[in-house]
Design a protein that fits this description.
Radius of gyration: 14 Å
Distance between the termini: 45 Å
Number of domains: 1
Structural class: alpha+beta
Number of helices: 1
Largest sheet: 2 strands, parallel
Number of strands: 4
Helix content: 25-40%
Order of helices and strands: EHEEE
Shape: elongated
Strand content: 35-45%
Length: about 55
């Protein structure tokens, strides 16, 4: 049996953690992992991703 796990993350740091740490570990248990970075803000057509800006 193969399980697919989708993880929604806020920024690139979390995405890197999922891809470099969780993904290799969970693949040992036949769990596929993918990380998606969400858009946190849209201003004048530009999409912003990530955490705090100030």
């Amino acid at each position: 049996m193969y399980v697919r796990l989708n993880i929604i993350v806020e920024g690139q740091t979390e995405e890197t953690f999922v891809n470099q740490t969780l993904k290799p570990h969970l693949s040992y248990f036949s769990i596929g992992v993918s990380a998606r970075v969400v858009t946190t803000r849209t201003k004048r057509g530009a999409k912003y991703r990530g955490g705090l800006t100030t």
